[in-house]
Amino acid sequence: MIKSLHIENYALISRLDIRLHEGFSVITGETGAGKSIILGAIGLLKGQRADLKAIKSGEKRCVVEALFDVAQYGLTDFFERNDLDFDGSECIIRRELTASGKSRAFINDTPVTAALLKEIGDKLIDVHSQHQNLLLNTENFQINVLDIIAASHNLIDEYAGLYREWRRLQSALSKAIDESKRSHEDEDYWRFQFGQLSEASLSDPSEQAALEEESEMLEHAEEICSQFFEASQLLNGDNNESGNVITALRRAADCVASVADKFRDAEPLLERMQSSYIELKDIASEIESVSEQVEANPMRLQQVQDRLNTFYTLERKHNVDTIEQLIAIRDELDARLNAIDHSEELIDELRQKSEQARAKAVEKAQGLSAMRTAAAVKVEKLMVERLQSLGMPNVQFRIQVHSDYDRLSVNGADSVTFLFSANKNGALQDVAKVASGGEVARVMLSIKSLIADAVKLPTIIFDEIDTGVSGKIAEKMAEIMKSMGANGRQVVSITHLPQIAALGSHHYRVYKDEDGDTATSNICELKTDQRVDEIAHMLSGSSITDAAIANAKELLFK
Length: 558
Description:
Helix content: 55-70%
Radius of gyration: 46 Å
Number of strands: 15
Number of helices: 18
Strand order of the largest sheet: 2-1-4-5-6-7
Mean pLDDT: 87
Largest sheet: 6 strands, antiparallel
Strand content: 15-25%
């Protein structure tokens, strides 16, 4: 529950610090005094979207902070899962807005996302504003009420997992069918392309470079042979000894060797000449060997050029540059064609898996339907009891649960409708369509009280849920809210009705201070005598009469 609330520079609030209590509390004040502003500030703590216009005019930053007592609500797992400090008993939530547009949130002084703030906010506070009466129009709300009373959350989680898996398989099946249809339309073209690439017998990614090198050699074979022959003759020719490089080098080495024993510096020169002689002989031998390998071969040249033309044609067609890329395209086409050949098998497999997944989801949905049907009987009885105590002696309330297992949804197979009639013999109709404003308020309060009995929610705030009621009915509503505030729960009602205000264990008044053009909202907890005056004011208006004072005391102290 909220132990203390701090609001600074929010809307008309300059600074507000207030301590709140467990049990049933009420907040009163003139229309426009700032009650809705306080709710807006609490909404920020629940992760609601921040509006920079909420920052008090002329200020750079606004802050909303609350201290919660959460010792009894089993939130340790939340704090451990999100790596947040927690002493086991208290939690501080803070939200800051700046005029520059920044919004920051903190849990126990650790920065958190708005999503995480919303997650913990939903566990700590339930704010029932007047527009929430419209929830009676939504089927999800009605189903959720039954699920809460039935305590079916584990079964809902199991169903949700099966439902998601079924939908995933359905999507995969639909995609496989569509792809199969498109693939068959392109099959002939793909098979033609695959045939061309397969006929090319592509295997070695380096084949093209090797053939291009061989083609270059074959195209210039005669020139290569001629030049190698001349080089060989120059190095080792037999016809012209004076022009034979190797013979000349050998003779030169002999000359130097003849004087080596007489001239010490000749030794290194002789070694170099002998080494060069050996190297040149080896070069000459290799030139001769290579020249024998190179020969003009027009037939082989034509074969190489034909093979290269095959590569070039395919590369231009597929807009690539290498054999490796062509191989990749061929393999991809092969995979596509293989998928086409086995598409019916894949579709049959997915269809079978989808049907199995759906059968499992239907089984869980049937379990949900059974739990909801049982919960509906319980809710009907409890709602009639509560609504009768709220001035509807002849009320009829039924819950219609219709199950259609051919139309599964994220909530199961059920559609739920709350049927209502305030009259004994009246025709039951959708509650949201036939109930008056005051009747809707009583229905929603009754539903909230049922939920409160089933859920450990620390704080519940009602914003003028008493709209459309008065007198004894208002008093009965106050008694229900007071009972909801038992066992450590905190229930706060913002009200304009003295009958409700009088039953609060604690009473707060929101008021507005005006100084020239400046208005500031404030809140204070009232003492007993102040409560008498406030309730008398609610009874008689601006002029408090003795009768109003007496009536106020009667309401407070009876």
